[in-house]
């Protein structure tokens, strides 16, 4: 006995709505059409650069600072060829290798900056919004003061203060990450604080307080899960801004020490003088890498915003199939 069409469609809808343990699959199922295409494209771009970053030593043909191989020096400013797919720089380094290793630097700074921003901004916003009083006023004043500074200028100041002339790769990456963290902590603080101020007067929070729950338990068990829903969206969008801020620091000479790690902003700075001579490859490929990473994380962030924001939600709706009407005899 074969199943009827409504039963088959209902079974497919139930399978599609079945919860999954695969991260991100629920968000992918909640999209459709162009929105799903944006999310998939962004994830593929991000996955590509993550693979480059993780396996950089195996993918890059040479070291990021290598200007020779097997005792033979590379030709400087060599155009893209079979030996050097992206050409060489004025110092003889392989551009492809610098782009690949630059993805590792970018990934490390993005992960650290976003992680530090969440760890600092989310708890501060939660405590400030729930407690109120003088603590709330002080934290709001500090974050407003940080917002008054241009983000890149603030990142430069923090980077100079933290780096202290350090030339190590770890020190430079940490300095850049902390500098970007200071720029983005106020965003997480404001979003979480405003959501907490609205949530602390909800009936379920008042009921928890009436039952004698301590403030820490109220914040963690009852408020936290309802105020951090937009944090993943902010994190993905800030990741794109972090790439641009890191590139800006490197371009202006305040980024990571060139001899410690490859960095795309520094490469763009060195490629300025090459452009006037018609040498395009030293700046084109690092610039394309920056654009692709920013586009990838932005596509993911905008797609997640459409999925998680009920006002912008355009999720796929399950069609309702009514049973056939019986003919009246």
Comma- or semicolon-separated keywords:
single chain; 329 residues; mainly alpha; MetI-like fold; 2 strands; 68% helix; disordered N terminus
Written overview of the protein:
- This protein has 329 residues and is mostly helical.
- The protein has one domain: Orthogonal Bundle (MetI-like fold), CATH 1.10.3720.10.
- Helix content is 68%, strand content 1%.
- It has helices spanning 5-17, 25-29, 33-54, 56-59, 95-131, 133-148, 151-163, 169-199, 203-210, 215-227, 231-251, 264-275, 281-308; strands at residues 68-69, 72-73.
- The protein has a two-stranded antiparallel ribbon with strand order 1-2.
- A hairpin with a 2-residue loop joins strand 1 and strand 2 (72-73).
- Helix 5 packs parallel to helix 13 (281-308), helix 9 (203-210) runs antiparallel to helix 10 and helix 12 (264-275) crosses helix 13.
- It starts with a helix and ends in a 21-residue tail after the last helix.
């Amino acid at each position: 006995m074969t199943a009827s069409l409504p039963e088959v469609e209902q079974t497919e809808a139930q399978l599609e709505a079945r919860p999954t343990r695969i991260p991100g699959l629920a968000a992918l199922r909640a999209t459709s059409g162009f929105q799903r295409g944006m999310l998939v494209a962004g994830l593929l771009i991000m996955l590509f650069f993550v693979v480059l970053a993780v396996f950089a030593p195996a993918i890059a043909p040479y070291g990021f600072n290598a200007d020779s191989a097997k005792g033979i020096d590379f030709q400087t400013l060599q155009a893209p060829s079979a030996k050097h797919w992206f050409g060489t720089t004025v110092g003889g380094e392989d551009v492809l290798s610098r782009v690949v290793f630059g993805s590792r630097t970018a990934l490390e700074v993005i992960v650290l900056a976003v992680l530090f921003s969440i760890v600092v901004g989310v708890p501060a916003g939660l405590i400030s919004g729930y407690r109120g009083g003088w603590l709330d006023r002080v934290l709001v004043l500090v974050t407003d003061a940080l917002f008054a500074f241009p983000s890149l200028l603030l990142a430069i100041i923090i980077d100079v203060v933290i780096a202290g002339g350090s030339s190590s790769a770890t020190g430079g990456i940490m300095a850049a990450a902390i500098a970007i963290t200071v720029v983005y902590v106020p965003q997480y603080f404001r979003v979480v604080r405003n959501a907490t101020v609205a949530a602390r007067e909800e009936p379920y929070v008042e009921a928890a307080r009436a039952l004698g729950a301590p403030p820490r338990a109220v914040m963690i068990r009852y408020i936290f899960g309802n105020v951090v829903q937009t944090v993943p969206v902010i994190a993905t969008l800030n990741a794109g801004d972090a790439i641009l801020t890191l590139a800006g620091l490197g371009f202006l000479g305040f980024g990571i020490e060139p001899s410690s790690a490859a960095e795309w902003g520094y490469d763009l700075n060195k490629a300025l003088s090459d452009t006037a001579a018609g040498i395009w490859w030293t700046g084109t490929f690092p610039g394309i890498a920056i654009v692709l990473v920013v586009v990838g994380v932005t596509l993911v962030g905008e797609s997640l915003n459409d999925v998680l924001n009920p006002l912008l939600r355009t999720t796929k709706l399950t069609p309702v199939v009514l049973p056939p009407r019986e003919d009246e005899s």
